[in-house]
# Entry
Amino acid sequence: MRKIFGHRGLPNVYEENTFKSLNKALEICDFVETDVRITKDEELVLYHDATIQTKQIEECTLSDIDELINSEISEIHLISREQIKGDTNFELKINFKFDQLNNVFLKKIINLTNPDDIVSSFDWETILNNRKSFKSNYGILIDKENQLFESKAMSNLDEKLMFMVEKEIFYSRNFDLPPERCVVWTVNDKDEIDNILNMDVYGVVTDIGDKL
# Structure
C-alpha cells in the first residue's frame, strides 16, 4: 500500500514537530515524519534545526530548551512511543561532535520504536552500522545524485534497507532504486503526489496532508 507521510505533522496548520501536529496528521495520513535530537542531559526532543537561538541542542539541557522555545516543552519532549498515535518515520539528527551522546541517542530510539516505524538519517554510517539492532524499519536519506550509485549497490546487498529520496533526485535519469522501498520528499502538489504514488513507491512526504 502506497503511503502518505505528514511532513513534521501538518505544518501549515499546527506548529511542526509537535505531538499535536503529528497526531492531527495521523487522522489523515498513513505515516508522520518527525525530526529527533538529543539534549545534553540525554532527553529526546522533536526539533529540526541544530540550534535554538544560536545554542546547539546537544549543549542544552531540557530545562534550557524549555526557556528558549515559545511552545510547551511537553509538546516536543519524546518520552514514550504512546505520545505519537501511529506509524512514524523518525529522522535522527546526528551531531558528529558528540559521539558518546549519539550512542545513548541510538539506544533510546531503538528501544522506543515500533516494528512498523522507520528510523532514518542523513548519517548513513549510523544507520548502516546498527542495522542488526533496529526493531523497526531503517533507511538512509538521499539528496545528492552522486549518492545513487552507492545506494543501488546497497539495495542489492540489503533487501530491508529503505531510501528516503529527495524529489529532484527521484526524477534523475540515474535513479535506479527499488521504488517499493523508496519514500519521496517533499511533494506539495496534489497531482504530483498522485503521479509519484502511481510509480509504486512506498510513500510520499508532504506538507499538505490536510488538503489531500
In short: The longest helix spans residues 99-112. DSSP finds seven helices and twelve strands in the chain. The longest strand covers residues 31-38. The CA atoms of residues 43 and 63 lie 10 Å apart.
